[in-house]
């Protein structure tokens, strides 16, 4: 149980285009999902917290107009990188908090999406 | 959330126990100790968590000192597939509290054949 998927796993795009990344909780409902970014040889940095049916909360320094987050259902959150530039190239990872069962309040992570902006 | 300190890297022989230490001297009474690991180019994987008692599951054991200022994650029989970065995180665990996880630099564990 507690499986989180991400799609796509890898994407290459041209500078100036927008890219959407999906994060799904497959076997549980996630009222809260989190988006992280990880640059090479660095640790994960939280970008934003996404709550179903409400606006996302962004960490300091993260541009909310550039990284659009939508959490329209209890199993899906999307991150759209708008007008992507090479410096946005990174590994994007989502996690979902499982409210139910014995693992309530634990976070489970997706496999990540490797974004390369040319 | 309390800050944690971990060694940047460790090596372990395949089949032997891997003992990964973590210092969290500023941990408060309601903060749990969590361990995650991240295999290269994958998302982090939850391993185990505990408050003050030692915990064991199918993946690992967690030993927390009596004063709770440090802990050790034990992989009893390390395999090559256990090579990963291991993160020790302390945070409050309640249904209504925020669940943000603050990742430090972690420990790169390399299991050698």
Fraction of residues of chain B in helices? under 10%
Q: What is the molecular shape of chain A?
A: globular
Task: Classify the beta-strand content of chain B into a percent band.
Answer: over 45%
- Please write the string of helix (H) and strand (E) elements of chain A: EEEEEEEEEEE
Rg on CA atoms of chain B, Å: 13 Å
Instruction: Please mark out the parts of chain B with pLDDT under 50 across 5 or more consecutive residues, or reply none.
Output: none
Q: What do these coordinates show?
A:
The complex is a heterodimer of chains A (about 120) and B (about 110). Chain A has strands at about 5, 10-15, 20-25, 30-40, 45-50, 55-60, 65-75, 75-80, 90-100, 105-110, 115. Chain A has about 120 residues and is mostly beta strands. In chain A, strands 2, 4, 5, 6, 9, 10 and 11 form a 7-stranded mixed β-sheet that branches. In chain A, strands 1-3-8-7 form a 4-stranded antiparallel β-sheet, with no helix packed on it. In chain A, β7 (about 65-75) and β8 (about 75-80) form a beta hairpin. The radius of gyration of chain A is 14 Å and the shape is globular. Chain A starts with a strand and ends with a strand. The model of chain A has no long low-confidence stretch (mean pLDDT about 90). Chain B is mostly beta strands. In chain B, about 0% of the residues lie in helices and about 45% in strands. Chain B has no helices and 9 strands. Chain B has strands at about 10-15, 20-25, 30-40, 45-50, 55, 60-65, 70-75, 85-90, 105-110. In chain B, the strands form 2 sheets. A 5-stranded mixed β-sheet of chain B has the order 1-9-8-3-4, with no helix packed on it. The interface of A and B includes residues 97, 106 and 108 of A.
Question: What does this entry show, briefly?
Answer:
The complex is a heterodimer of chains A (about 120) and B (about 110). Chain A has about 120 residues and is an all-beta fold.
Give a quick set of tags describing it.
A: 118 residues, mainly beta, 0% helix, B: 113 residues, 5-stranded mixed beta sheet, 4-stranded antiparallel beta sheet, 46% strand, globular
